[in-house]
Amino acid sequence: MIAVDAVIVTAMPDESAPFIARADFVGNTSQVGQAVHRVLSIEDRGVLLVQCGVGLVNSATAAAVAINGTSPAALISAGSAGGIGADVRVGDVVVGSR
User: Fold this and answer.
1) CA 9 to CA 12: how far, in whole Å?
2) Which residue among 6, 13, 50, 94 is the one 20 to 30 A from 74 at the CA level?
3) Are 45 and 87 within 8 A, CB to CB?
4) In 25-98, which ranges are continuous DSSP H helix?
């Protein structure tokens, strides 16, 4: 089991890029099923960045596999809220309340 503080799930490289750019350490990629896993360190926090491809099945499967292999304190889904509403734009942060 990999010890990380958080798992971040993205669909596409453009969504993963800001996390990689901010990281103090960027590990090598590894293919896990359809997803690409990469361990990062961001401000002394261990992060597993998972790029899974587009789609609900890809996202759910990648998240489940990552959680099972890491037991993180947080799971963050990044880049998947596009098209939720007419007022949501690229770069907006959408946080659920329930």
Assistant:
1) 10
2) 13
3) no
4) 56-70
